[in-house]
Amino acid sequence: MGRSLVRAWLCSLLALVLLACRVGLGTPAQPLAQLPTRQSRPSQAHGAVFSPSHGSAPPALPSCHIAHPATPLPTRATNRHGTPPGPPAQPSPAPWRTPVPILMYHYIRPMPGPTDPVGRDLTVTPAHFAQQLAYLASHGYHTITLKELSLARAHRYALPPHPVVLTFDDGYEDFYTTAWPLLRSRHFEATVFVITALIGHRGYLTWGQIRQLDRTGMVEIGSHTVNHLDLTVLSPAAARYQLVQSRLELASRLGHPVDSFSYPGGRFNSRVVELVREAGYRSAVTTLYGWATPRSNPLALPRVRIHGSTTLSDLAHLLPR
Ligand SMILES: [Zn+2]
């Protein structure tokens, strides 16, 4: 064979090797876009952790402190090295299971004189209130709003450890001037039930204060009807007006739906509960004693009343541990 023939044969061989290399090594790796989407990391906002399930992107987060446990997710390396991704991750909700105390407050103000026994019973002094908040903080309680409790039930969110709901009935101005600064200093949340016809009246919250509280994202504003009447003795039409009108006005002034309700005087029956449901509320609190559980009727939730005479020792016995 001539030298030129050998050179031509070597060139052909080299070309074949190069072609083989291109086919074997040059193929792009699996594009990342084809990896399972459930690798997306849990999102976090406003202290909430949300873990997607079924591989779907996390839905819009509620502004709350409800935590969902992070589901262990496959690593990217595992999948890129050929391990079958397996079935989609099963939702692993750790839903609300433990009892939740919903504390009921009215006034946070200096104690009235002995001629006002009702007022005294409804009053917790600022000093006692501060001590109660300190107790809750030091014993690991985490405040949530009533709306967050409702979301936990509906969406099977887990609750933070030792959850507690702090509610304030009637919408007294001292919530803004006295209770809220103490709550805010501890990053505590609260739910305030206002009587819409009394807003701006002497001793009651103003619309400006209510809007300001609402915009903090730490205070939920709920309805306590228009006129604080006993709904069980009103005609269906009159009761419906109290429920719907107050909800509409609050929603209009705040710019978002209002989901929580407190029965005036704690008075309710099955007919009133149905009207509350029809009016669009998702949660309603009573004055019946007890802790809320997942089995509680969300429109007839029990509460724990905090009296003017409630001591720290009493409070400790009123809370689940
Ligand atoms: Zn009331």
Automatic annotation (TrEMBL):
This is Polysaccharide deacetylase. Coiled coil: none annotated. InterPro entries: Glyco_hydro/deAcase_b/a-brl, NODB_dom, Polysacch_Deacetylase. GO terms for cellular component: extracellular region. Residues 33-95 are annotated as: Disordered. Residues 162-321 form the NodB homology domain. Its main location: secreted. The lineage of its organism: Bacteria, Bacillati, Chloroflexota, Chloroflexia, Candidatus Thermobaculales. Pfam families: Polysacc_deac_1. Keywords: Signal. The keyword Transmembrane does not apply. GO terms for molecular function: hydrolase activity, acting on carbon-nitrogen (but not peptide) bonds. The keyword Signal applies. Gene3D superfamilies: Glycoside hydrolase/deacetylase. It is found in: Secreted. One of its GO terms (biological process) is carbohydrate metabolic process. Residues 84-95 have a biased composition (Pro residues). PANTHER family: POLY-BETA-1,6-N-ACETYL-D-GLUCOSAMINE N-DEACETYLASE, PTHR34216. It comes from the Bacteria.
